[in-house]
Every structure is written in structure tokens, then in C-alpha cells.
Amino acid sequence: MPDERVLFAHAVRQMARPDKMNCIHCHGEMKRSKAPFHVDRNGYHLVLDTVPAWVCHQCGEAYFEEREVDAIQSVIKGLDQQTRQLVTDP
Ligand SMILES: [Zn+2]
């Protein structure tokens, strides 16, 4: 099972100061921007090209806010259900 928990570990769940934040990896300044999101599921791959995110200008790390994480999770949930008939284990 591809691990969406790893991906969502990058998500910012609580934004103490949503107008400014620093990267937890390099402490670089982060700016509101867009970042690609991709996930490998059983039998399909989902790529979203330009998800609103905080992006570190030093190392490029991207963090998604709760609103975007929730939206992505509901897309994945729907796709899991809708692809169940179409993709099967080899
Ligand atoms: Zn960084």
C-alpha cells in the first residue's frame, strides 16, 4: 500500500502564523506559491500540477495547508472507490 501518511506528514496541520513561516528543514523563508502533488496508489497514480502551498525558497520543500490536504484526501478517497472496478492486483 503506497503510503499517503508519508506525504501528508509534510502537511502543515496547524498554522500559528499563516502570513509567515520558515522551513523545518533549512529554516529558509517560505512563501505562498504552488507545488505539484503526486501520490502512487494501488493501480493508479495521481498528479496535481499546481496545488496552493508554502514553498521554501532555499530548498524547495513544499507544505500544504489543511484545506488543501483535506481536498486532496477527498479526491483520493473518491478515486479509490471509483477505480476499484477498473484496477486489480496483478
Ligand atoms: Zn527549506
Write the layout of secondary structure elements.
Layout: H1 4-9, E1 21-22, E2 29-41, E3 44-56, E4 62-63, H2 66-83
Antiparallel strand pairs: 1-2, 2-3, 3-4
The structure holds zinc ion (ZN).
Question: Key features?
Answer:
90 residues; alpha+beta; Ubiquitin-like (UB roll); 4-stranded antiparallel sheet; 27% helix; binds zinc ion
Which shape, going by the Cα principal axes?
elongated
Distance between the termini: 14 Å
Strand content: 25-35%
Task: Decide which structural class fits the backbone.
Answer: alpha+beta
**Helical segment count:** 2
Radius of gyration: 15 Å
Number of domains: 1
Largest sheet: 4 strands, antiparallel
Question: Which fold does the CATH topology refer to?
Answer: Ubiquitin-like (UB roll)
- In percent, how helical is the residue content? 25-40%
Total DSSP E strands: 4
Sheet with the most strands: spatial strand order:
1-2-3-4
Word description of this protein:
The chain is of the alpha+beta class. The protein has one domain (4-88): Roll (Ubiquitin-like (UB roll)), CATH 3.10.20. It is built from two helices and four strands. It has a four-stranded antiparallel beta sheet with strand order 1-2-3-4, covered by helices on one side. A hairpin with a 2-residue loop joins β2 (29-41) and β3 (44-56). The longest helix is centred in the C-terminal third of the chain and has 18 residues, at 66-83. The protein is elongated. It starts with a helix and ends in a 7-residue tail after the last helix. The relative contact order is 0.23. Zinc ion binds at residues 23, 25-26, 28, 56, 58-59, 61. Zinc ion binds next to loops.
